[in-house]
Amino acid sequence: MKRLSRTVAIAAYLAFLAVVFEGGSRLLLSMPAVRARVEGPDDASFRLRWTRRKSGDHPIYYVFDEHDPVRGWRSKPNVRDLVVHGDEILNTNSRGARGRREHAQPKPKGVVRVLVFGDSFTFGDEVSDDETYCAYLEELLPGVEVVNLGVHGYGHDQMLLYLKEVGAPYEPDVVLLGFLYDDMERNVLRFRDFAKPRYELRDGALVLTGTPVPTPEEALAREPWRSRFSDVLTMLDQRRRARSGQAKEETERLSTAILDEFDRTAVGFGARTAFAYLPVWGELTRTEASRTARETFFFQYCRTRGIQSMYLQPFFLARAREGVKFKAHGHWGPVEHRTAAEGMKAYLLEKGLIPRRSAPPP
């Protein structure tokens, strides 16, 4: 009897502590000053930010997005002349690719087709349809179809899932990945712009988790029952792992496996793979040609895997010497997109990924 009473007392005490910790966490996270100190680039923080935006009647995504049960979100098909980011014009075709142009399936005989995957820099946030590097690249390579399959906020895991979903019907000759190191950090998340899938490495193999991705309505319905104390622990643990270097190691290990699978998948479709390192922010304004740690990781990876890599920085440096000013913040503008396309064209032709007959006449 005494043992039973003691067990009940311990259980009651633990329940009391749980209530205290949970209540305290909810109170602290309701304070903007506290949130600013503890929230970071982790699942819990991204999810709570999304919940607050939704609670304030803000759009869940951009108005041109919709829910996707596998990838989390995707571009709506058949968007027509939507004005975004001030005065930019956005269209998507019947399959959700950027721009109005349709791409026949099966691919017509004689057509050279390049599929481009990436995040918002590839999709072209803050520019119009004809100002993305995909649009410029198609302009610079007559006879080549360049299909812009970039989606804002995507990690490489979502790009891989997108490639697996649509790659075969497009029959690509080249699959091009617009690479940003920041996208690797998205690969370890389960929530970013919205809930998303996540690959895990188990015995060296990629295992997809988190699908089907819940709808926004389902995600909101679950939110009141989530533990805020668990959220706080997640935030603090992420800070610890970042300081120790553990987070970086996990990010690079998982991302390497995802990029390997991306390459294998493209080759399985009969395409050749090319990864382009997209210089952004401070990388655009530096004047020296030496590579950063992020660039070093990327090019070492591509070299060891035998994947064709594109180093676009020299093209930006050349334009800078001509007096061109590049943006050191936010997304690329038309000048940055055009410069990147010129660099990609040069690589694609030099390495024989695109036949010379597709090049514009001298």
Architecture overview:
- The structure is a single chain.
- With 362 residues, the protein is of the alpha/beta class.
- The protein has one domain: Rossmann fold.
- Helix content is 47%, strand content 14%.
- A hairpin with a 2-residue loop joins strand 8 (198-202) and strand 9 (205-209).
- The longest helix has 28 residues, at 2-29.
User: How far is it from the N-terminal to the C-terminal residue, by CA?
Assistant: 96 Å
CATH superfamily assignment?
A: SGNH hydrolase
What does the radius of gyration come to?
Answer: 23 Å
Structural class: alpha/beta
Largest sheet: 5 strands, parallel
Helix run count:
14
The structural domain count equals 1
Main sheet strand line-up: 6-5-7-10-11
The run of helices and strands is: HHHEEEEEHHEHEHEEHHHEHHEHH
Q: Indicate the mean pLDDT.
A: 91
- How helical, in percent, are the residues? 40-55%
CATH architecture: 3-Layer(aba) Sandwich
State the total count of DSSP E strands. Answer: 11
Q: Uncertain segments of ≥5 residues (pLDDT<50)?
A: 358-362
Layout: helices, strands, pairs:
Elements: H1 2-29, H2 32-38, H3 43-55, E1 65-68, E2 72-75, E3 82-84, E4 88-90, E5 112-117, H4 120-123, H5 133-140, E6 144-148, H6 156-170, E7 174-179, H7 181-186, E8 198-202, E9 205-209, H8 216-222, H9 228-244, H10 246-268, E10 272-277, H11 282-285, H12 293-305, E11 308-311, H13 313-321, H14 334-350
Parallel strand pairs: 5-6, 5-7, 7-10, 10-11
Antiparallel strand pairs: 1-2, 3-4, 8-9
Helix pairs in contact: 1-9, 5-14, 6-10, 13-14
